[in-house]
Structure formats: structure tokens, C-alpha cells
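Hey Z.,

So I finally got round to the fructose -6-phosphate thing we talked about over coffee. Here's the setup:
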Amino acid sequence: MRPGRTVRQAADPQEVATLAADLIAEQVKAKPELTVLVATGSTPMLTYAELARRVQAGELDLSRVTAVQLDEYLGLSETDPRSLWNWMQRSFVEPLGITRTVRLDATAADPRAACADYDAQIAQLGGIDLAILGLGPNGHLGFNEPPSLPDAPTRVTDLTPESQASNRVYWNAEVPLQALTAGMNVILAARATLLLVTGAHKQDILGRVLHASSTPDVPASLLNGPEVTVVADAAALGSPA
Ligand code: F6R
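And the result:
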């Protein structure tokens, strides 16, 4: 394991959610106006549900947080049921009572201008305080597909066949072959990062992230340093619960 990165082992996905929600709550208590980069996908959903439970119970106030979309399929409008913006609204923004958001506009006539506008909004907010990320089956972060260099900017990317297949599962439908993603430069500049990983199907790729050399061929392996916490369950870590 490389120095500086913390790995927290949980017994199962629900315990990952509890631990992750504890870490997110700590950050929001220290800075209520936190700017959070928000992954969708399956893995963080239990964490978002746990946060929603705490908000509803009056234990946590996330109303001053800004939610920044991590990625989006190219060309999908915000009302398309497959849109990741839509998913972020349903799972994170609405249940947590968040009103400030930054959207990655995948319907813009000029996607490059939309990426520049997104980066400018993040810069105006003072950068990302906390990135909540999932781990792609090929090691991608957002839609930074392998290989992605650490300075890869916010941009249009081609989805690999592996990512297309894993994304089809969400909707039981085809997804666009291209996407917009926050750049590796945005992700790696986050002041704190939570990488959430669950399930035996992530064991091999998580092993490469944690134990092999840092390489653009596994973009998540570029997450290093004391600001990075990996919260993974026993199945993903391949260790006894
Ligand atoms: C989703 C995203 C993706 C997912 C990754 C893992 O916004 O950016 O990088 O985090 O593909 O997906 P799950 O959690 O469904 O295994």
C-alpha cells in the first residue's frame, strides 16, 4: 500500500454507507458550505440513503452544500430517465435538501464550452472540498476511462465497451457511447476524497488500485495522499468480514 492513503474496511455495503456518511457528516459540520463532487452509480446509493435518513431525523443539515455533477452521457437532456443529472437529483440533491448545484451540460451546442463553464463554476466556488467517487470495473473515475493522465481535463470521452456494458445494467437500455466527465485534474485537486467500493466483482480492480503501481491505465490508482480515504467492504477487499 502506498503511504498517505487510508483504507477503512467495512463488513458489508450497509456498513460502508454508515462509515461514509460519518465521514461526510464530519466534513459538513466543519464546513457547512461544502462543495461536493457527486458520483452516481450503484455504490454510493446506500450512503446517500443513510445521509437522507440523518437529514430527516434532524441529525444533519446539508442545506448549504453545493452538489457538483461528476459526469453525464453526451446529448442526454436533464429529463431523460438515464441522465446522471436526473439520478443525482433523485438520490442526492432532493432527499438531502440541497439547493445549490453545478451541472455538466451535455446538451450544450458546444460541449467544450460547457466543460469550460463547469470548470469556471468550480473555480469560483474555490474548488472541490469533497469528492465522493465509485470505482469503475476498469478503474475509471467519473468517465475518465483508462488511460487517463493526472492532468486530463474536463472533456468529452469515449466510453469503453466495459463501461457501456456496466452502464446498460442501470437502465436495461442502451446508453450513449460518449460522455462528459469532470477531469482527472478536477478530481485529484479535491481537498478530500472518498472512494467507495463494494462487492466481490470489484476485488481485482481494487487490488490493482491499492497494491499495484500508480498508472494512468488504472485512473483510480492515481488517487494518492492523505486526503484520500477508501471505504470498502470485506468482499471488495477480499478479506474476512
Ligand atoms: C457515476 C460514475 C462512475 C461510477 C463507476 C462505479 O457517476 O462516475 O464512475 O462511479 O462506474 O459504478 P457502480 O457504483 O455502479 O459500480
